[in-house]
Amino acid sequence: MPQYLIAFNDEWVQEHTLEELRAKADASQVVITDMQKAGVFVFTDGGIGAESVLFSATAKDGKPVFTDGPYVETKEHLGGFCVVEVDDDEAARYWAGRLAVALEWPQEVHRFPGREHILQLEESE
């Protein structure tokens, strides 16, 4: 069964008071609980953004190079995400829609290619 990433960027969300954020957390928890009951929930987390970046890692001459914080040119930061494992794109659309309504901000959905996709690529070579 494919897994999907449902995510939002921190920049898509207007400023909220602590009380508003608590209400959003409560509303989204209802959806997460429904995901758990449906057996599609894998993992979720949020509250991440530009201020939570610890460091960046790149490669130079086969060795890792670490720098503090995000790259200067980075304009968007992941704000939160949820991973679900569902039958198809339509089911992922349903859960993303539920989160968009509960949180009242946009969600973006990505399908992880999965092992099957990698095997198909290897077979086509």
Task: Compile the SSE list and pairings.
Layout: E1 3-9, H1 18-38, E2 41-46, E3 55-60, E4 63-68, E5 78-85, H2 89-103, E6 108-111, H3 114-124
Helix pairs in contact: 1-2
Helices and strands, in N-to-C order?
A: EHEEEEHEH
Q: Can you tell me the CATH architecture?
A: 2-Layer Sandwich
Number of strands: 6
Count of separate DSSP helical elements: 3
CATH domain class: Alpha Beta
Biggest sheet strand order reads: 2-5-1-6
CATH superfamily: Dimeric alpha+beta barrel
Description:
There is one protein chain. With 125 residues, the chain is α+β, with helices and mostly antiparallel strands. The protein has one domain: Dimeric alpha+beta barrel (Alpha-Beta Plaits, 2-Layer Sandwich), CATH 3.30.70.1060. It is 38% helix and 30% strand. It contains three helices and six strands; from the N terminus they run βαββββαβα. The strands form two sheets. A four-stranded antiparallel β-sheet has the order 2-5-1-6, with helices on one face. It has a two-stranded antiparallel ribbon with strand order 3-4. A hairpin with a 2-residue loop joins strand 3 (55-60) and strand 4. The longest helix has 21 residues, at 18-38. The radius of gyration is 17 Å and the shape is flat.
Give a nutshell description of this structure.
This protein has 125 residues and is an alpha+beta fold.
Q: What are the salient characteristics of this protein?
A:
single chain; alpha+beta; Alpha-Beta Plaits; 125 residues; 3 helices; 38% helix; flat; two-stranded antiparallel ribbon; four-stranded antiparallel sheet; Dimeric_a/b-barrel
